[in-house]
What we know:
The complex is a heterodimer of chains A (47) and B (883). Chain A has helices at 4-27, 36-40. By secondary structure, chain A is mainly α. Chain A is elongated, with a radius of gyration of 19 Å. The mean pLDDT of chain A is 83. Chain B is an alpha+beta fold and 883 residues long. Chain B has 31 helices and 31 strands. In chain B, the strands form seven sheets. Chain B has a seven-stranded mixed sheet with strand order 19-31-30-29-20-27-28, with helices on both faces. Chain B has a six-stranded antiparallel sheet with strand order 11-10-12-18-13-16, with no helix packed on it. In chain B, strand 27, helix 25 (705-715) and strand 28 form a beta-alpha-beta unit. In chain B, helix 8 (186-221) packs antiparallel against helix 9, helix 9 packs antiparallel against helix 11 (281-301) and helix 11 (281-301) runs parallel beside helix 15. Chain B is elongated, with a radius of gyration of 33 Å. Classes of the chains: A mainly alpha (47), B alpha+beta (883). The A-B interface holds A 1-2, 4-5, 8-9, 11-12, 15, 18-19, 22-23, 26-27, 29, 31-36, 38-40, 42-44 and B 63, 67, 70-71, 128, 131-132, 135, 148-153, 193, 196-197, 200-201, 204-205, 208, 212, 216, 225, 228-229, 232, 235-236, 239, 243, 862-863, 865-866, 869-870, 873.
Amino acid sequence: MNVLFFVIPIALCFAVASVLTFFWAARRGQFDDLDTPAIRMLIDDEK
Amino acid sequence: MPENTTVTAPTIRDNHAQSSVPCAHCGLPAAAAFDHENQALPSFCCIGCEAIYHAIHSGGFDTFYKLRDMSQNARGQRAVINSGNTDPNLTDKHFSTFDSDEFLEKHSNLLEDGTRSIDLHLEGVHCAGCVWLTERLPHVIPGVIEARLSLARARLELRWNPEHTQLSAIAQWLTRYGYMPHALRSDRIAGHSKAERALLMRVGASWAIAGNIMILAVAMYGGLDILHDPKLATFARYISLGLATVSLVYGGGVFFRRAAGSLRGVLSRAEGFAWNRLSMDVPIALGVFVGWAHSAVATVTGQGDVWFDSIAVLIAALLTARWLQMRGRRFAGDAAERLLSLLPSTARRLLPDNAESDQPRIEEVPADTLQLGDLVEVRAGDVIPADGVIIHGASTVHRAVVTGESRPEPVTAGDTIEAGVTNLGAVLTVRVTAAGNETRVGKLMQWVEDGERRRAPIVQLADRLGGLFVLVVLAASALTGLVWSFIDPAQAVAHVVALLVISCPCALGMATPLALTVGVGRAAKQGFFIKHDDVLQSLARATHIIFDKTGTLTEGRMTVAHITGSTEAAHAAARLEAHSNHPIAAALTAWAATPNAPNLAPPTDITEVPGNGITGRIDEVPTAVGHIDWIISLLENPSDDEINTWRKHVATIVADGFTPVVVAQNHKITAAIGIGDRLRTDAPELIATLKARGIQPALLSGDHPELVAACAQTLGIDPTLTRGGVDPEQKRLFVEELRKNNPDAQIVMVGDGVNDATALQAADVGIAVHGGTQAALVAADIFVTRQGIENILELIDGTHQVMRTVHRNLIGSAVYNALGISLAALGLVAPLLAAVAMPLSSLFVIASSLAQKSFHHPYSDPTGSTQSTTTGLNISKTQKNAL
């Protein structure tokens, strides 16, 4: 079970990475509007 | 007839509501149009929609209609269009104030690369088509870099380069396509969204930490290898300590700061220390800290039990509850920002140097910079920008926004006029007597905004219970440990661990907010927007419901209410009245605009007698429409019998609260028509049901007392609870008087206008109904986006269900915790069993909240879907982490 001494810190690193990703997304306002993006994907990108 | 008036575009549009075809642009009912081969052509409710429709087609923006229909089909038809956005008069607004340095400084941000960004509130956005059209801006106006529309909040984020284009050009473009832009204060918006994002980040981090500590805790409680390798257990404890410390400082910091503030406030008070003045943050902070300190000491010394998982979950759960509340309240904040749009932002000021001349020069200035004595020009269809006295011109105005009076009123030089009133007829010149916040509407708005600020902060049951809970559990575990160390020292540790594990702060902490949030989200799907979830309780216990008349119980516009005599005669009258611009004529014309109307020849020899009526010939039949006395004077040898019969009919119409119009054909009276603001068809049933449930209905209106009394009588509302001709201040006094007479009353006010705002605020629960003005939306706690009034009942039923769920959750988790803690203290629960029971209690609360029966009828609405997505997201997140 000694492997846990390595695996748990590695898992925590993943957790930190995902929290940081979440911070990045929240700071960029990704969670401000949860409604319009669903509609925006319906719109074709014609130039 | 009561008065002689003229009517232009805004009311005519409303009056077409009885015909069947939807307008090709906005979806409001419009008269059907056919070409010579009887092929259906696009129909329009007004000239404004027609202009916009053709502008969109010629601009190559047909995708707008495709996308709009798509989103409407997906979500159900929604015919809610903000008034004013189809008014052709708006298209020549110049927005010159939008380019002033002062304006840009106040409303927009200068970015590093020299571009500017601004948030605009757009009137009239309601579908995917609007998203597409407004986000085309960068393609159509060079210099616009980015345009992002938030559909639910009707907010456009715009970034543009001031060197290449001007904001006024962008605003004109938006207005041309029917989206009237309103500027918002950029600093306040930035503050709001920054605080919300910061809290969201705390919520996310707290849950991530709580989840990781829980995984470790489950392993430890499960006894994983602890006996084989004590080092692993120590390792796990230290990692938990590290994680919990981060959660305590970063997530729990909010509670510590506020608890410290509250303590300082209490200690600095002159009249001494008062426990009951302490905020709920104090027990939370204390409980969380004691729990953490206890576990930290146990970790370092290796003696005693750790309890990091519960501490971390408690912090995360309480933060989530706060975030949900903050998000819910965002809508209220948005509405407050939008108050600006009630009054026009610009005014057409006559330059003083030649104001008295025939051709005065006019400049467009911000309405709040108007000075006392300035002269402003108000065109037909515009809203009066300031209180003042008319010095030139005669017109008709619609005061419904300010007074609730449903009939348009004539005004002439010398009359006083208030800001917020709509000018329907002709151009007026007004001398300003009060501007900005000094106007009557401005003062009303300030009162509403102050009230919003004064509102007591919602005391969250979750907060109150959370702190106490931690302290109780700690005391219980200390006692258990002490007692068992005497009885059976070997078992003491296991029993304390079981107690700490089985106690579930999550179930207790989330019981109220989860049930309320699910309820509020469901309500939003049904078209009920609940701004403050604490009003649900008051609404469920409502004893009195006060209704506003105009626009709430009635339709809020002139229609043909009933006809005595021949319908053909009424059609003939309508044909004749099509040539008049009296409001009553407009109602008749709208009534007659049905596909199966008889095909009558165009009238000839039309003569209108102001104040009396109109005469003419239709198919050579002499026809007259107008006031009964005048009609009788036109008859040739009328019999007394005929006169008396028709006078009786007219008296009935008046008693019902309608304005009578009499039709004579071939010198014989053939019909009497009652025209007025009709009661909504579902109103009588609503009042009857409310009375049957023991809820006392009341009626308040700024309309003429006799009309209000007639309305109350028809509906069966107690005359002592009916007031007509009341101004906003008196409405508020009525609510206060009612409360004084019935101290236990839970008073609900239902209204729609600015004139109801004070009463909406003063009542325990204010409900703004469909089509309500901005002021009403701000003052109200709940607003309804669905047509009709019978859904008030559905709302009350829904709140009953939500409250039932809250009680079920609270009782369920309290019983669970009491039982679990007692059993563990008695030594009847093994730690492993406790580890299984704890998540089950959280699951119970989640399942119970989701299974609530509130607001379960399907109803879709574009804005409603945001709320539901939000709720869905939160729940899945809670669910994942609670386990």
